[in-house]
Amino acid sequence: MLLLILDLLGIGVFAVSGALVAVRQRLDIIGVLVLATVTGLGGGWIRDVLIDETPPASLEDWRYLLVPVVGGLLTFWFHPALYRMDRLINIFDAFGLGLFAVAGALKAAEHGLGPVPAALLGMVTCIGGGLIRDVLAGRVPVVLVSGELYAIPAVVGSAVAAIGFELDAPTAFVAIPAAALTTGWRLLAIRHGWTAPTPKT
Amino acid sequence: MLLLILDLLGIGVFAVSGALVAVRQRLDIIGVLVLATVTGLGGGWIRDVLIDETPPASLEDWRYLLVPVVGGLLTFWFHPALYRMDRLINIFDAFGLGLFAVAGALKAAEHGLGPVPAALLGMVTCIGGGLIRDVLAGRVPVVLVSGELYAIPAVVGSAVAAIGFELDAPTAFVAIPAAALTTGWRLLAIRHGWTAPTPKT
Amino acid sequence: MLLLILDLLGIGVFAVSGALVAVRQRLDIIGVLVLATVTGLGGGWIRDVLIDETPPASLEDWRYLLVPVVGGLLTFWFHPALYRMDRLINIFDAFGLGLFAVAGALKAAEHGLGPVPAALLGMVTCIGGGLIRDVLAGRVPVVLVSGELYAIPAVVGSAVAAIGFELDAPTAFVAIPAAALTTGWRLLAIRHGWTAPTPKT
């Protein structure tokens, strides 16, 4: 029950970030709702399609679809207020990141994938929705170009969770530190402006 | 038999619209054929992958692949004439919209999805191909940005069909009014220039 | 064993081409690694998802994931040297093209698809990764717009392999000439500057 609530919260934060991009790129109401939905659920869909867990859980439970629609509509009406909450959204997003990284990696590991692909799919769960969002909004995906530390904390937390699963550690014992690592690292990166390297030119 | 012909006609109209975008964006012959194919069949592929109905029917029956190739080649050679038939193509497209919305929603419902996800997947069947088309052609998808009433009639028709299925109504009794609703609404929107709302700035 | 090595080599060349695009578009380290991975493996993933062969083999064997990561890191550090090897990379890429076209078509045919869809999926194996690469890098996919002879040799080689499979010819007897046809045609097209037609305007 707690996990479901956390999951829905994470999806809601991602959905609002997607809807805000749609508003900024001057999309219409359909653009806002579609971007909210793919940003909230798209990463999990890519993971579930690749590990053959279809239909994805979020298509079989209408509550998972309700969250991005509500998030999209709220953003459609109240986007000026939400833009002012930019910092707060980034903080919630960091919690969603840790949750999705670990949940995605464990789901892949439970389907028999080894730690390397499971870590990759944990990262895909985190960044896949944002990739689709930015491609549909007509911009190069932020996560690939900004140099922000976003995908790296995600893949490292996913790897920790996947290795713990491989070593048969108790799930809570693995999941909570791994999620805390991802979220904490991301929050520190935001606060201190840490960046990932870019190629020398 | 009638349904197969209607289905192939709908795919053909979508394929021509995809090929016309390719010509306008100055793609080469491969670009024209790829955009014709993904516009005609891509929405159904996304739906089938998400509901685990793979390989998609349109990959197991070569007639489904022949239609976009023929549509693409005709557009490659005769695009000036086809541009002049813009209004006619929009009208045929509205019929394809109603057909795909209802067929997509019913297919998802038959695979055990509830009315909310089935309505979503009916809309995906309609707009998925155009989303891929526009992303590959290097433009923001028209359906997300134009404010045209396109996805909304599709999702409403899909929802009507999915609810009818849930209530065990006879298929024809559900499918025909739902498709007529989508197509009629779309045609009226074209004629009267009705639009969807965009966020206030 | 030989086939595994050839496969990994082909993936490595594709991965380097993806990473070079990322460097040119000024993406960060995550952009370089993501583009290397999707360019090397993405075409096969699309094929495997469409024929319901999930999880894809390249997600179940960590060596397939290691190759794009190494290719991406090498490109990240040594891209000036790799740009100077442009001609050499194009030649290796032509060998990867022949290999992927035939391997992709045969895999689809073994899953029961007829020669027409199998040829299409052979081409998808070849160009799918580059399509995702270019969309993520914010440019119109080269293979759709450049007029280069790339997809046409691929689909013809795939078709030859798929027809041979349909006629129960011994695999080696079919695969080697089909791959040689694709690779040779591609190499001749590079050397002589042959192009595909574009629509008249």
Assembly level: homotrimer
Count the strands of chain A? 0
Strand composition percent of chain A: under 5%
Largest sheet of chain A: none
Structural summary, described in words:
Chains A, B, C: Keywords: Cell membrane, Membrane, Transmembrane, Transmembrane helix. Chains A, B, C: It comes from Nocardioides humilatus. Three copies of one chain form a homotrimer. Chain A contains nine helices and no strands. By secondary structure, chain A is mainly alpha-helical. In chain A, helix 1 crosses helix 2 (29-50), helix 1 packs across helix 5 and helix 8 runs antiparallel to helix 9. The longest helix of chain A has 25 residues, at 86-110. Chain A binds chain C through residues 49-52, 111-114, 116-117, 120-121, 131, 135, 139-141, 143-147, 150-152, 195-199, 201, and chain C through 22-23, 25-32, 34-35, 37, 45, 49, 52, 54-56, 59-60, 62, 65-66, 76, 79, 135-138.
Provide a quick synopsis of the model.
Chains A, B, C: The chain crosses the membrane at residues 6-23, 30-50, 62-81, 88-106, 112-132, 144-165, 171-190. Three copies of one chain form a homotrimer. With 201 residues, chain A is mainly alpha-helical.
